[in-house]
Each structure stands twice: as structure tokens, then as C-alpha cells.
Prior knowledge:
It contains twelve helices and 13 strands. By secondary structure, it is of the alpha/beta class.
Amino acid sequence: xxxxxxxxxxxxxxxxxxxxxxxxxxxxxxxxxxxxxxxxxxxxxxxxxxxxxxxxxxxxxxxxxxxxxxxxxxxxxxxxxxxxxxxxxxxxxxxxxxxxxxxxxxxxxxxxxxxxxxxxxxxxxxxxxxxxxxxxxxxxxxxxxxxxxxxxxxxxxxxxxxxxxxxxxxxxxxxxxxxxxxxxxxxxxxxxxxxxxxxxxxxxxxxxxxxxxxxxxxxxxxxxxxxxxxxxxxxxxxxxxxxxxxxxxxxxxxxxxxxxxxxxxxxxxxxxxxxxxxxxxxxxxxxxxxxxxxxxxxxxxxxxxxxxxxxxxxxxxxxxxxxxxxxxx
Length: 329
């Protein structure tokens, strides 16, 4: 059902202009938002969890806001091309970045001169999920213990991820160090490409979001043998965590969130936050999230800001301890 679109009062920029002309600020008619399509930039290719989250929310928001949500996949450089594009976009409320905690990890791995969590403006924490360790059936392993044994006999076993600097890259290296094995990181431009090669057996294992692999796991074409959260996700109750598989403390839960370009007015961020918050109560969206092993979160922009910057600090530590760099991909 379409709901009435909210309006916002033209901000300080308009009054500053009037002041510079030596005129009193006139009464300005309120502008409707949105009055044209809104763009969601996704920094990875279709087929992964970020794209899934963006499109699921976009469908609900299109109906609620009365305007189309256009999902634009801007891939490359471990997701930074898309995130950079969002940073450079006009702060007019018509471009938002939908990304994961890659925004917190990539700046440290790629040695960027800026930190996305401090430059982009937080809008809302949309959903959380674990990452999963998946293998091709031909590998012949059914557990983390068997995987580690195989890797010790076959140094350089490859693991796919959605890109250099991704949370999947970090947790893969973290697990390998704790397990005392040597894994070769095989980065892709998104989960869709990674899953395609995993299904074909071109790469034998992967750390990816469960959204991309859960259906293949159910069909038997891919095996999920572990998840990276502190406790088992509601939809992955039969899959042990790395922590309970003997790798204590190897816990990393991904978040998926919306950010706005720098200088986007607070009023617009508030309106988008409220719109997404309402969409997270949509029964169909929640059902689809559950099928993708995603837990809807929501909350104020400030809560996302604190989470993102805390994770930036965590990744800075892990990147240093694990000696991860762009060259490691």
C-alpha cells in the first residue's frame, strides 16, 4: 500500500543564499521527498547478500514511497569503486549506499587515505548474518575437522570470497591462522561469480554469506560446514560455528546497512531511516530475509555509526595481526 510521502523544509543552504543577496529569506514552499527515483548503489555484483538486501528493501520502499528504487551494481576494487561512487554522489537524498562491513575493513586492507565509516553518513543498520564456510562435494569433507586435515595435506587449498578486503577475506585468513593451515585467497567481484566457480569445482571452498549458497546447500551441490557467528543462526541450526568447532573467538558477524553521501541533510537521512524501519516490518520481506539467513535489525543512524566505527577499529587490529593486504588477494 502506498503511503503519503513526507516533506522536508529546505535547509540552511537556501537561507544562506538569501542572506548573501542581502535579502530576508522568503517563505519557500515545502518540497516533496522523494519526487523522482532513488538510487541504491551496491558495491558488489548481483547474487550476493548485499544485492539481495538492497533489492528486497527496494521493492518494499518503492511501494511505500511512491517512487522507484533503482539498484545499481558498481563493482570492482574489492567494493571500493561502488563506495567511492557513493561518497562522490550529490547529497540530495536520491543516492544511498547499501553495503556490508566491507566499509569498515577495506580501508585498512587497501591502505586508503580515508575511512568510509567516518566519511559516509550512517542511515540504518538493516540486517545481520554470519558468514559460512562452504565446500564443493568433490573435496570429500563434511566437517571443519576434516577440512583442516585436508588443507594440511594439500597446502594452498583455495578459498573464494567476494573480494579483497571483504569480511570473508578477513575471516578466512583469521581461521587459517588459528587452524595452522595455508589457504590461498581467491577473490571475486561478488558472491554470484564466486558461487558459480564453486559449483563448477574451479575453486573448492569459500567463505561467503549464506544468502548466496543456502539453496545450493539444500540441493547438495555445495556443503556448508561452518558458520562464523557467536551462536548458530536461526535458519542454520544444523551448522556448527567455528567457535564450537574448536576455534575459540573466531567470530565475525556481517552487517548490511545504508549510508548516505557526505553532507546529506539530517532531515533526509531521518526520512529514509524511518522508511526503511517500516519496511523491515513487512511480512514478505521478513520471510525472504529468513530464507537468506538474515536477521532484520533497524535502529537509529547513531547506532549504525557506533557499530561501523567500532568494527573499523576491530578490522584495523585484525589486518595488522594477520598481515592482510591487497597483495594477499
